[in-house]
User: Fold these one by one.
Assistant:
Number 1:
Amino acid sequence: MSTAVSLQTGMPRLERAEGAARVAFALRRIGGREETRLADLFQDGSANVRLPKVHDGSGPAAVFLNSAGGVTGGDHLTFEAHFKAGSTATVTTQAAERIYRRSEGVGRIDNRLIVEAGAKAHWLPQETIVFDGAGLRRRLDVDLLGDARLVAVESIVLGRTAMGEEVTAVDLADHWRVRRDGRLVYADALRLSGDSRAILSGGATGRGARAFASILVVASDAASQLDPARELIATLAADGIEAGASTFDGLLSIRCLALDGRRLRVIVEPLIETLTGRPLPRAWSI
Amino acid sequence: MITLTGTATSMTEPTAGATLSRLMTWLSPSFPVGAFTYSHGLEWVVEEGTVTSAATLTAWLSDILRHGAGRSDAILLVSGFRAAAEGRANDLQEVAELAYALQPSKERRLESGAQGRAFATAIADTWGAPSLADLAGRLAPDPVAYPVAVAVAAADHRLSLVETVEAYLTAFAANLVSAAVRAVPLGQTEGQRTIRDLAPIVSAVAAEALIASLDDIGGASLRADIASMAHETQYTRLFRS
């Protein structure tokens, strides 16, 4: 298949990343036991879903992927996961999402989770790599009902840090809105507009970090995870890796900063395994 | 459209100069919100070595103003003021809920919530601000986040929004400089020079907030967030945040 070429720039033009994918999980009675099963699946455009077999007792997993191979200005992807009452499942991504330099506009990614009473949702996408010149508007909207539980992570890496790429022009807005029974309980708003290397060079921002992650646990016993998280952070924090954890209002909030993507994983991976009580999704090691 | 009880038209029309004297009173270090007990994580970055001088303090505060709570609070203040002034009660409640939900750590929630609660109480006990009392009632038991509380009182008293947001940020910066003078420590003159050096940034952030919408909110003060979290376990602490 020949690669389309932009008439304006003469550069190869990515397949448009446009589409929507949706999964739902529900508790089913199977042979006398209650087990979580896939209850709905929808995919359209370049937003796709894979359903690998999972045998570690943590419930089914769905792997979202963008078959366009990346996101650039003007693209729009929507991913949604619905965890019906009592279900337990994990949603992850096939690979790091790549946000490429755009010629115009910004890429949009909308992620939506609905987690019903008694359900346990693990939202564990891999990193998003943001290239120089990229523009992205991303939202994670979570609706929790009753005693629903959530472990969620979002990671961003600026440039291909292993190759020494620097991101000096970016237009990035990454927002979380988490509601419990309709009430906003947590929000996050990352905004990097302009020279991200300069912005993140200061002591209040990143001190040179080019990779960062936020982890959120929502659970009635979230506070009990604080000490284990802090112990891990104390062990793993090093040159080029910093993190903090805090618990309040039924939440555990963690921020991680690292010089590069590899170091970010050094701290994020064990934290996720501790907080979910499960091994990482297999997709993370492929 | 739902109108607020006791809208601004029922307040006494302020005389010229009311903005200046009210803002100076409400944002004074001696207004009973306990501002001097909060350091926004500064006490930790002093201990940890990021802020050890007037120069490093200026750099840190400059980033907090432009890429952290300074800019975000200013946008929340502006949005809250306009919602209150225009009688948009549901929008105002959304701004207030967002302001509190955006606080990423226990001590930032305390800093925002406790000051907001104290401000609302002090205003209710003295000058009065019907929309603020109404908002506090709607949000209870959650507090009104501090920048939104200031915004709503200002709107009720028909103060100038431009001056309110500039005064809010000036007081925010001055309070943290005062914390640094105690924590680093710095000399009083060094502290005042820092405030002088930050004044253009305060003005620039205020100007940006006046033309921003809630969609423009956000920052990158990640290390300051971590500082706030780490401060919880700091061995010797003068400050609650």
Number 2:
Amino acid sequence: MRQIRNFSIIAHIDHGKSTLADRLIQHAGLVEDRQFRDQILDNMDIERERGITIKSQTVVLPYTSRSGETFQLNLIDTPGHADFSYEVSRALASCEGVLLLIDASQGVQAQTIANLYSAMEHNLAIIPVINKIDLPSADIERAREQIEHDLGLDPDDAVLCSAKEATGIEDVLEAIVERVPAPSGDASKPLSVLIFDAQYDPFRGAVASCRIFDGKFGPGDIIRFMSTGATHKVEEVGFFRLNRDPQKELSAGSVGYVVAGIKTVADIRIGDTITLDSNPVASPQPGFKDVKPVVFSSIYPISSDDYPSLLDALERYKLNDAALVYQKDSSIALGQGFRCGFLGLLHLDIVQERLEREFDQSIIMTAPSVQYQFTLNDGSSITVENPQYYPDPVEIEQSREPFIKAVIILPERYMGAVMKLCMERRGSNPRVAYPTPGRVEITFDMPLAEVVFDFYDRLKTVTQGYGSFDYELTEYRVSDLVKLDILVNGEKVDALSLIVHRERARDWGVQVCDRLKEEIPRHNFKIAIQGAIGGKIISRSTISPFRKDVTAKCYGGDISRKRKLLEKQKKGKKRMKMVGQVMIPQSAFVSVLKNKDE
Amino acid sequence: MYPCLRIKMSSEELPGLYIHVPFCGSKCFYCDFYSVCSRSWICAWLKALRTEMALYSEEFPVFDSLYLGGGTPSILDVRELLELFESLAKHFAFSTVSEMTMEVNPESLSHEKLKAVASFGLNRLSLGVQSLNDADLKYLGRRHNSAQALRAFDICRGAGFSNVSVDLIYGLETQSLKSWKNTLDTILEFRPEHISCYQLTFEKSTALWKMRKSGRVRSIGEKMEAAFFIWTSRYLQRRGYRHYEVSNFAAGPEFMCRHNRKYWRHVPYLGLGPSAHSLSIKPMAGDFRDRTLRRWWNVKSVSDYCRLLSEGKKPVEGTEILSKDQFELEALDLGLRTEDGLAMNLVENYPHSQRVLSQWQKSGFIKVSEGRVKPTRRGFLVSDSLAVMLQN
């Protein structure tokens, strides 16, 4: 156990986490150079394309230190996005130390700080690493200053490296060995294992990634999940090299995996504790909670015939993503579909993209919504995350919506623009701090609903990419909510309805009408688009008709050619949704909430 | 002795025969029909045509319309025309009600030529005037001027043709509504039996298409096009012409083009010559599921055409058999392009027909009368989108 180090890398997005992981793996000689590809731990195309990590990955790195001692370094790679903060926290709970990565040219950002706090909560050894020192714009001195002032860490402890150029990698590894404490624990005590991730293997079922705190176990043992009481017989345990490497047993201090005939990842609760059925530990590892979706949206197949295929795709998708929840939903405009809950907007994006790419589904997603609470006249309370189920306004006693604490770090020169943006989005109680000269940290109380639409994109725009943003859910607050309906040629399109704050209703109404005007193609008749609250029209736009589409000549040789053209149009129409006689393209349903100038 | 065409009686609507004459003096800028600008292939083409006729004479023994189109059929001289008609007379028969049309261009017709074709049985001419404004004619790349066009009309009448159609093009950027009216007014003085008014279309890979792409010419825009269309329809109807198809006007029901109407009602037709299209229906009557509608088209290139026939092969480039959906889509679209419109019972089969029809009526696209859905002028203008709306 003395030779084991369990650590993770945490960083703001784009500060080079995956590249550093790549270098550490290469240094350990786990792969030959010719087999190597960038972002080796990011298996999904979407991770590589976006340069983000969605699923945690774990890998054992053998390392011989400068003093000649051999170590087993367990790198637990964590997702790099706030949507997955619970998974991150479980991964951190499995470590004794972290590398806190800071981009030498960008310095400390919002997520750097958020990450530092969570590392501190878990009492981890923190090793600041200044990365990208090869960049011409690198400012190491400034980064050191920020480490001292913003993070309150000793700048002399910072390790310098360039993951891209593979310089300073040895220093990083040495620092891990020296400064991250060896795990404590007792292999003779009752088994206590923390699950920090789960993955689906089509042949073995769900595979749990875990950290053993006390005790030891191996194949044949009957284990118990403490949150559910479910028991399973262990088939295999082992370490993660780049593939799974079976072992006779796992014992206190190590990080590895368990295969135990578990059907889906939904049967494994991240944060749950595994113990032995015959000799259970008295209390589980702390910090377990049920992850609850924060953002909701409905998914419909473009063609209603594809509903069974979409159901099948969701079932298969869910095998590997326990965080996605869904239930049947139906809309007058869009037919049969599913109401889905997501951890956040990135999670929503990922689900949409993977359904389309890996599962070959053509889908429409409706505008994301948060979960609102209503107290009704009869004293009962309901939560509503689907505008379709907005209660009758006369029965509402009180409405509440979720609020967040939003932390934005930005260069001082953009402060005016960011303040304006946050105020527009109903931000309140601004707190401003100046952690280092030239940089501002603004904290706002904001409704989550104002953030889910396009806040992050807007922030990037107004700060030219320099603003960073992080948030945490705080509480539900009383709010004056209304339901905004959208009518297309007099017909209400239920899938376009939104629950919004009364003061923002007109702005949203105008924006949705304007956006739909751009999204819906011209027809041979006039189309009126209206936003309405109750029966009252608050915004409108009109799509003027086209007057002529006929071809002049249609004789023997033209007929097949023309029919083919019409068939193509018909096919195009199949990708649209008909509302009355109006064709609405699939993109319209989500884009109504995106601001025009992006 | 003249190769006068044999005449046969029939009660059922007989197929039409189209002959594509793929030769021109030069290519007009807007035209995307197949033709070559050389006479050197005429002899081989005539020979190949004769072979092609022989290959089809059993399947298509009798017609009630003939249409010589192009290209520029009037580019053929009397001797070549004689050879063509001799071949036709040898292989096919024509019924009593037959209409036989030849497309002629002002610069390539003479009294002698027209007298000759009249003696073969030809009874209708389609004169490619396009415009009586010299600036328009230049813009279109035509070989004649307005004076020649007017003279040509007199030659047609002088040769005894009492059924003459005039082709016109409008919606050119060189044209104002006033100059278009002048062209129409002058044409109307001659009282042609039939007028085709085509909206200028920028067809892919024509010279005009390229000129528009490079920004040298442009379209007059949808609004102006619609205005020209409505005005033209109104004006000609006031002058006693029936607007019986999107681009076609007839001085009386007897002057509607019998041959072209076959295209619009799925009556079979045989097309001979390079790039010609054909439609066969077997058997002629009955339910759709018992019938096979087959359409095929010939190779474009005149040299390929001649070579294949010299090898005794049909010069067919492609064939399609229409599915029920395809047939219905065509029937809807073609029907909505004609004043007859659609039979109500055809429309009622579609699930949302009532809602669609009431919306069309509200938009002023159709009138319902005598159990038919008939397009209005504004309906003509958007008839392509109407067909697709109904089928969804």
